[in-house]
Amino acid sequence: MISKSSLYHVVESMAPLYVAMGLGYASVRFRAFTPEQCAGINHFVALFAMPLLIFRMISSNDPYAMNLRFIAADTIQKAAILAALALWARLSARGSLAWVVTLFSLATLPNTIIMGVPILRGMYGSMSGTLMVQIVVLQFAFWYVLVVFLFEYMAAQRALVAKQQQAAAPAAVVLTVLDGDQQINASAVVPVTEGDRNADTNTEAAMPPPPAEAEAAMAAPSAKLILLMAAKKILKIPSIHASMLGLVWSFIAYREGIKLPTIIDDSVAIISVSATGLATFSVGTFMAQQSRFISCGCSVASLAMAMRFLVGPAVMAASSLAVGLHGDLLHVGIVQAALPLAVISFVYAKEYNVHPEIMSTGVIVGTFASFPITIIYYILLGL
Amino acid sequence: MISKSSLYHVVESMAPLYVAMGLGYASVRFRAFTPEQCAGINHFVALFAMPLLIFRMISSNDPYAMNLRFIAADTIQKAAILAALALWARLSARGSLAWVVTLFSLATLPNTIIMGVPILRGMYGSMSGTLMVQIVVLQFAFWYVLVVFLFEYMAAQRALVAKQQQAAAPAAVVLTVLDGDQQINASAVVPVTEGDRNADTNTEAAMPPPPAEAEAAMAAPSAKLILLMAAKKILKIPSIHASMLGLVWSFIAYREGIKLPTIIDDSVAIISVSATGLATFSVGTFMAQQSRFISCGCSVASLAMAMRFLVGPAVMAASSLAVGLHGDLLHVGIVQAALPLAVISFVYAKEYNVHPEIMSTGVIVGTFASFPITIIYYILLGL
User: Fold this and answer.
1) Three-state SS for B94?
2) Chain A residue nearest residue B267, CA to CA
3) Domain containing A84: what range?
4) Which residues form a coiled coil (chains A, B) (predicted)?
5) Which of A44, B177, B329, B336 has the fewest CB atoms in 10 Å of its CB?
6) B116 to chain A, minimum CA–CA distance in Å?
7) Inside any domain, residue A194
């Protein structure tokens, strides 16, 4: 049974996140910030604050002392959901790769870094903060890479279809199609929302894709080419750099027993401490800038919420029990699986134009819904 | 004699500030951020991060345990310099109120909150952090209010001159002059740099000054009217609100022995922790956006540096000794007086167009110069 005081402690850990979000929301609604100014803050988060926070988290995590059982449960949950979705896509007429990626992201990619660490710490103490970091390592080292790869695969497929259509079309269309390709390529320099595009396009404008690539895209999308494109895209995401660098450093540091010099650690920290506040503020501005809270249909929104708050946690519970987790470890796994959707999932969906309206709804409604839902999970698990 | 290790400790406390500044500078130079995006970050600092940091600092400072001697030394330093400048302005043909305000700001208003707290803590331990807060209380409760009052007085004087000229001018000019007045009134909603103006003007557009005010401005600028205008302006500065609120709360809390509930304190902290990193980042973007590092003449720049790094600390040393300070307290007072110029001083100078080029130079050159100068002061005082 959860005591009143520990319940209040959880509310204490969640409230600041919602206050920062509310501040962001109000700032846009009362026109204290222009969309371009919001984009500046979002860009700062994507380019500096988040990567440095991820680096600091991962580099200070002992990779030789990871909880393998916990990681296994997390991996089995994601792999099982992906396999089930792939099977459904193959068997059902309504199934498609786009839906597989969308439903997979909804079910398995919660907001671990920004919301998971403070909330789970408030619930189960500092032990759970360490577990969150282990999940973050896998997210950035594998799962987001996989998601970007699948998005790239779909983009290449679409490009192929466009090329085939172009064979019977006048020359003017060729240019349009090629432009379209470049647009896809120009995305995801950093995770960005709409308003942030300008800066990226500027950066990208200086380096158009080499002609060889455009020609290669004329052929069927080979797995090798798609891998190459995905790799190029992934290597441009600061958070991925940061997690790799952090991982490499953690392997060296914990083997050799060395620490990052204070002067470097403090220089990273001066920016990284701003990540949680600015990122949640940014989610608030994002909400206020959408024309509707539920931008997809209500039935699709319900499906999205069911994937996020029921399927994800249920499969996590099953896989945790399967590997023999129990007690707090089991509870931490389930509650973190029921956190709101990671904003980065919306960002990619938007960039590649694969169900962005569903992901937007997932972030907005999910963030509101998660306040009571997370607490209900916490109470139920404590019975 | 300062040991090598404590000297390194000081460099450790300064380095992160310069790293964040360098990041801001590079971000603009490499076009990772547009001017409008920088304005967004600066606006966030002025509207939320700084006020909340100031509130948190002041509200957690015990007002019944202030070091009266230290405060007296700080007050005497500022009052003495102001008196000397006023005397010079009265006696010299080259003296003017504009120069009094400029030289006073240069000599007595260092960057206490953002740079003072971490650097002085690195030098003399947490005791000096508390002393910095006491200086901040007075800065916001009195000295910045005075500076804004003097700027308002000059603006009113200029408006009067314009009105007198207008008496003999065609009607079209009247409109221009009135517009000019409104422009001055529209300033300083929050401390802003140039790019930040749009948002402010938008906010302000909804509330034009009542006609009575415009008529009143036709008459000679009465002290009462100027006070009213200054009060209106000051009441629009979030940092002033925050410091007043923090002061009131600290008087209540430390008398009654109560504390701010954790849920409120954490909600303030989630934003306020970003202030130091974002504010120094913002100074870096400010530097990169200026066309020249030294935008006033070299001799004026030298005068500005002399006021900041020699006159200010020297008068502080004299006033500290006069009230009987010695040891670390004396050293803390002198070193904090030799910190770089507060960015807010530039912001006001820019808003009221009173020697903005000198203040810009004061911030930029002063920030670079202060790295060695602060350390030299520290070493000399430790001999």
Assistant:
1) coil
2) A16
3) 4-15+60-166+217-262+288-382
4) none
5) B177
6) 15
7) no
Rounded distance between C-alpha atoms, residue A342 and residue A8, angstroms: 25
Cα separation of the two ends of chain B: 4
DSSP 8-state symbol, B354: S
Q: What is the pLDDT of residue B201?
A: 38
Each residue of B86-96: pLDDT tens digit?
999 999 988 89
The upper half-sphere exposure of residue A359, i.e. CA atoms within 13 Å in the direction of its Cβ, equals 28
Which residues of chain B are at the A interface, by a Cβ-Cβ cutoff of 8 Å?
11-13, 15-17, 19-20, 23, 27, 31-34, 36-41, 43-44, 47-48, 198-199, 202-203, 262-263, 266-267, 269-271, 273-274, 276-278, 280-281
The reply to whether B275 falls in a domain is no
Report if residue B197 sits inside a domain: no
Interface test mutation site (partner B, options A29, A271, A272, A285, max chain B beta carbons within 10 A): A271
> pLDDT at position A205, please?
38
Among B36, B198, B262, the residue with its CB nearest the CB of A40 is B36
Question: Which of chain A's residues have a Cβ under 8 Å away from the Cβ of B121?
Answer: none
Q: Would you call B34 and A40 a contact, using CB atoms and an 8 Å cutoff?
A: yes
Which range, of A73-82, A190-199, A251-260, A347-356, averages the lowest pLDDT?
A190-199
Lowest mean pLDDT among A121-135, A136-150, A262-276, B227-241: B227-241
Contacts of A139 (CB under 8 A, 6+ apart): A109, A112
Q: Which of A192-196, A235-239, A331-335, B351-355 has the highest mean pLDDT?
A: A331-335
Q: Cβ of A15 and B274 within 8 Å? A: no
Cβ pair A278:B274 closer than 8 A: yes
Residue B30 included in any domain: no
> What is the CA B127 to chain-centroid distance, rounded?
23
B175 has a pLDDT exceeding 60: no
pLDDT band at B181 (very low <50, low <70, confident <90, very high): very low
Does residue A97 have a pLDDT over 50?
A: yes
pLDDT at residue B153 in the model:
85
Query: Cβ A16–B270 below 8 Å, yes or no?
Result: yes
Q: Please answer yes or no on whether A37 and B32 come within 8 Å at the CB atom.
A: no
- The pLDDT of residue B132 is 92
Which residues of chain A lie closer than 8 angstroms to B39, CB-CB? Answer: 37, 40
- A202: which chain B residues are within 8 Å (Cβ-Cβ)? 31
- Compute the average pLDDT of residues A163-173: 62
The answer to whether the Cβ–Cβ distance between A263 and B12 falls below 8 Å is yes
The count of structural domains within chain A is 1
pTM (2 decimals)?
0.82
* B21 compared with B290, residue with greater pLDDT: B21
Q: Is the ipTM of this complex over 0.85?
A: no
In terms of average pLDDT, the best of A157-171, A221-235, A279-293, B22-36 is B22-36
Nearest CA in chain B to A267: B16
Top residue of B11, B267, B276 to mutate, by most chain A CBs within 10 Å, is B267
The confidence score (pLDDT) of residue A224 equals 80
Mean pLDDT throughout B121-146? 89
